[in-house]
Amino acid sequence: MNILEKIGSEVLSFFRVQHVFLIFQKGGVDALLTFEGITSTILCLTPFILLYEMIRSLFVLKKGINVFIVPLLIDLVNRIFSRLISISVGSYMIILFKPYAILKTELTWYWFIYGYVAWELGHYIYHYICHRVRFFWCLHSSHHANESINMSVNYSHFFLEGPFADSIRVSTCILLGVSPSMLALIVVIDWIWAEFNHISEETLKNARLGVLGNFILTPSHHRVHHSRNQIYLDKNFGNLLNIWDKLFQTYQKELQEVKPEYGITRKVNPYSFSDVYFGEIIALTKDVYLAPGLRNKLLYLIMPPGWKHNSN
Prior knowledge:
Layout: H1 3-15, H2 17-32, H3 35-59, H4 66-97, H5 109-132, H6 134-140, H7 161-175, H8 180-197, H9 219-225, H10 243-247, H11 273-290, H12 293-302
Helix pairs in contact: 2-3, 3-8, 4-7, 5-6, 5-7, 6-11, 11-12
């Protein structure tokens, strides 16, 4: 495969059109109306919403597309390193923990609700750790470094974050008895909602979604999560369900009087791949190197971001 074919393959892969074509070729329109066909079509549509955001930013808002470049470059890098690792980690967790499942579920609507609550618990645990343990914040910070919100931000992650996330989410679900087939279904829905949660304010200005926002986490809640305002810091760790955020008191609505300020508390260049991708790792390395004593060096790894050994 030459370089042009490789680029073309990656573009098709990004827009996820190949799987939809295969489903249509096998079964026509009827196949597209199955669950697999519907979810594949929705997954195919979300990158086109991102393309719309880019075109609108360039030609209507006259803002250019600089804010999209680093997240998409990160996605390209991660396609090389992260994909196979995540699949391997997820498969290993299923094999490792399935014998210890506390119960056995079936693919029914009521067990699906149970399974989704279990998945959200795993997601909450992984996400909370990423924000409250500095070593893991280094894996997650690139997702927060952008100073605007748009669907490209969903692609901006350090390549080891996906495997770490899957190790916790999958093991939590398997231990709680969620079957692998149900887990696969949940992952698809979770990914679709994660992409929608990052929709830009220009595309969907009021993202509270009316009364629905009382029961689930909407793009408005996720804008809170991506904000560095003091009142918004470390809030809304769930993806779709708000049950765990409410239970653990990390739930926060977007306030009319407090406009979200996106980004992280460290001064960062959101247009620099190296600063977005490696900036927190470099900062942590410096702090560990300069810290007096082994205890302080270890504490920098496990304490929350912003912790200092000489602070009162």
